[in-house]
Specification:
The chain is of the alpha/beta class and about 325 residues long. Helix content is about 35%, strand content about 20%. It is built from ten helices and 13 strands.
């Protein structure tokens, strides 16, 4: 592994130069950017996946903008279609992407659209619905749009300031771009994170960004005795096609729930031929993101979704909510 990293180091250096120059072109006005009259909020990261963007979009809908007219705009990664599309109840992942469909299903069919051109997507949304705010999913690198505010996510175990540039590491954008964020949320923190460690992380972040820093853990469901005993007494197969399944594995291990794990790459498009021994299992455990694709390949009766959401650490939820409202609407609760 050490030799491989040495081999990849020159390519990572070249990659970092390219993304640095691209961002400089936007900063100097060589590439155009546009700010819209409608309020826009970006949720993004500097790395390739696994920071919890989709759960953060759902958290914002539920906890921050529940009284607002909200629309979500995503690129629709992994879809086979092109152009602008509204996500509908009859949509399929191949048409709109798995994460937009998950957001639509998990938010009581809140308006969700996909478009690779965020400018055109925003214009179409404003024309069709006139929302109060548009949440731009995974648009931190889409600098043709100048958002009203930016939330940057980075993980506790692999924060951007410790990471390396692609292909040696997972960084897809330059570390200096963290300074464009208004808010940075360190996700997937341990539940016993101390204030001293959080302060140390904030100090490391401050070398790259002046953004306000918050911390979040992943919150999985609390099971009652009957549900727990049922899971412990059945043959379970965990199927995931996500960037980081480790927190979900830890949740099941901590509850002494037995399972075999069938792993696929992120955004995998499931087919019936992917599974040869499902008859050996009584239950399929999976994520909400995977469920929208699994339904076309396996019996829906076998599938049980394990939901997850962000929980803000140190009783800072209200402070974070008020800061987001201040950044996006110049108001607080």
């Amino acid at each position: 592994m050490h030799i491989l990293k040495l081999v990849l180091a020159p390519f990572s250096w070249l990659y970092s130069i390219v993304v640095y120059l691209r961002n400089m072109a936007f900063d100097l006005g060589w590439f155009s950017t546009k700010r819209f009259s409608v309020s826009t909020l970006v949720v993004g990261n500097l790395s390739f996946g696994g920071t919890g963007k989709t759960p953060m979009i759902l958290w914002l809908i539920k906890e921050v903008f529940n009284s607002k007219n909200v629309v979500v705009l995503s690129r629709g990664y992994g879809r086979k279609s092109v152009g602008f599309k509204w996500v509908k109840s009859e949509s399929i992942p191949e048409e709109v992407g798995d994460e937009p469909l998950q957001i639509y299903n998990s938010s009581d069919q809140l308006p969700v659209a996909v478009c690779e051109d965020r400018r055109h997507g925003i214009e179409r949304i404003v024309s069709d619905l006139s929302p109060e705010i548009i949440l731009l999913d995974d648009a931190f690198q889409h600098r043709k749009v100048s958002a009203k505010a930016n939330i940057l996510l980075t993980t506790y175990l692999n924060p951007f300031f410790n990471d390396c540039y692609f292909p040696k590491g997972k960084l897809r954008d330059h570390k200096t771009q963290a300074n464009r964020a208004d808010i940075i949320v360190v996700t997937k923190c341990p539940k016993d994170l101390t204030k001293e460690e959080a302060k140390s992380i904030k100090n490391r972040v401050s070398k790259w960004s002046s953004a306000s820093v918050f911390f979040a853990t992943l919150q999985y469901p609390t099971l009652d005795v009957e549900a727990l005993n049922s899971l412990r007494s059945t043959k379970n197969l965990l199927i995931t096609g996500i960037a980081d399944a480790a927190p979900l594995e830890s949740y099941l291990f901590d509850l002494d729930i037995p399972f075999d794990h069938l792993r696929f790459k992120d955004h995998h498009a499931y087919k019936a031929s992917d599974f040869s021994n499902l008859s050996n299992y009584e239950r399929i455990l999976t994520t909400a993101k995977d469920k929208v694709k699994l339904e076309a390949a396996v019996s829906n009766q076998l599938i049980e979704v394990i939901e997850v959401e962000h929980s803000i650490c140190f009783d800072q939820k209200e402070s974070l909510v008020n800061l987001i409202l201040l950044k996006t609407f110049d108001q607080i609760n």
